[in-house]
Amino acid sequence: MIAGYQALMQSLADGHAPEFLEIDVTMPQAKLLYLLGAVGDLHMSDLVARLGVSLSTISGLVDRIVDHGLAHRREDPADRRQVVVGLTPAGRAFIDRFRELNADQMRNLLAFLDDAELASTRHALAALAGAAGRLAASSRSIVTPRKDPA
Length: 150
Prior knowledge:
Elements: H1 2-22, H2 27-39, E1 42-43, H3 44-51, H4 55-67, E2 71-76, E3 79-87, H5 89-110, H6 115-139
């Protein structure tokens, strides 16, 4: 099962290689953008906790995505000592572009399945989506810090 998943993901990643080579952000910056796109504006301290990196690492990542015009930084009106980071319209467009590339790639892949394969794929995707939702609900309060990337 895992080997099949890995083969699928590798094939999909290979299909995205040209698009990923065109972007001007690093993988850690892309992860930060995807997090902001998924949950909305966050305090710097929340970014540290969710990504499991140091404040200095987050500060550098935020500086670079702000410089690219993909995110904004502002004071929290409730506590001016706190900095809140969020996506700009350009940052939202960046995320939307890659989500649409993924959707296009999936549509192209599904076009090669017959009706029976489509039905079983639909069933399997529904099961996986349900399991992912249960996993997310069970682990929302658990954060596993990682070391800063070298």
